[in-house]
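Protocol step 4 of 5: obtain the predicted structure for the target chain.
Materials: sequence only (see below). No template structures provided, no constraints applied. The aim of this step is simply to have a reference model before the mutagenesis design in step 5. Sequence pasted as it appears in the construct record:
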Amino acid sequence: MIRKQRFVILIVLWLFTLSAAALVSAASEPLRHALVIGNGDYKAGPLKNPVNDSRDIRDLLRSIGFEVSHLENAGQRRMEDAIRTFGANLRRGGGVGFFYYAGHGMQVGGRNYLIPVGAQIISEHEMKYAAVDLGRVLDEVSRAENRANIIILDACRDNPFARSFRSSAKGLAEVGDTPTGTLIFYATAPGNTALDGEGRNSPYTKALLSHLPTPGRSILDICTRVNKDVKEATNKQQQPWMASSLSESVILVAGGSAFYTTDVPAVSAASPKTGSLVIETQPSGAAVSIAGHSRGRSPVTLKDLAPHRLKVRTELSGYEPAAKTVLIRAGRKSHLTLLLDKIITTGSLKITSDPVAAEWYLDGAYVGLTPDRLPEVEKGPHTVLVKKSGYRDWSQSASLASGREVSLVATLKKSPSSIIPLPRTKVTKPLAGAREKALYDEALSTFKHGNYKAAKDKFKKFIATFPDSTYKVNAIFWVGECFYKAKDYAEAIIKYEEIIIDHPLHPKAPGALLKQGFAFFKRGETTEGIIVLEKVIAKYPGSDFAKIARRKLKILE
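Step 4 output (structure tokens):
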């Protein structure tokens, strides 16, 4: 009996030793990091589920031990910054990486692109400038050399820009060279499109949410089960597809029949009682302080921190200060990345006049026709001059403050010399070109009264009726202005281009080139805008157009 009791005690002690060893092993495993992005608020082809999908995936990953960064309806810069930080976290942490994206995605020239919210893409060649290349994600995970990476792409919806694209390629393309230790799981097979779904989640993400938290199941097994569920839910219209270069079994949730799980933080009697914190800023080099005490410049690593809340503050010249409270946890290495906003040093100026379509000048340089608005004007005093034939010049000083808009209304008075009595001559026969001039003047008057859609139609009708008119190039320019005023900057660029290419010596060509540059800025294409303004300066160095271009480029510095 005593021998039997001793044997039982030895068995219990042996099992306890194995359990403790497993816990300590798990506790020493590196942290796991995830980046989750859900984009749905598109102007062209909005999607209702990606934000819901991303939130649910975020909550699930956090519940199984991932440090999660989450973006909703993100633009290009936020996505690229987050991907860069994700890669840095993987290089430091060394654990399993998890990237999830829900939203529009498409292939162009065999490359895959994730579409940011707010992207304005007219043609395929613009994709590499306005979208986020999936290759950026693959490069980051390849450089990380961490344990394993899982990339989930619920991003194969229909192309929202299909009507303006020449190719008919659908969905995403197959990644030719999957980075070592990486699994890429697509919502559907390459070249096909996925469904957004009628409920809260897409069919693909719904299946992921069902199977990812299953204890003891490998990621390859999870993908197989998700594949089966999606095919059944969509009546075989959609079939997920996978590419893997994993060299080991990755189990996200311990339990079931599995004894070992990768890098799940655990707590044991031997767990450390302090934590650490890595602080980064974008851009780097910001002064970091905690509770008023300087801790150097970012990036900063703080070790042996007692578990409690820390308020981190960062300051960098030319940027707004940023602060955030972080919870330090025992045995964990936390990462904090603060995106710093540039300090605004410009204001905006809005000018209207009565009558409209008057020329206006800022500090002696011609800007355009009223009504108009300059979004970025250096703070400080400025002089505004408004001129119109037949009216007295109007001038006023305006002092602009950072981030504020000043609105000016110029009420023009007729010049006495412009009031000339009309001769009482009876016209018995219309003058040559009288109808042509009348139609042009009618279209221009409509523009001046702010009815840009009607003016555009009238100018187009004028061009079609009088294709050889001396007013034709002017009419093309005003069509571009109508598009510009209606904020259809893509069409405005095309019209300005028509003058620049076909009529380079016409008096309207310099103005068309300048306005094309401003239209690129309005579309968020800063690089193209800078290139065009530099052309203005090179081609018309002594003109008012060049002065305006120089002023704009100076503001951008």
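Step 4 remarks: Residues 344-418 form a domain with the Immunoglobulin-like fold (CATH 2.60.40.1120). The longest strand covers residues 346-354.
Proceed to step 5.
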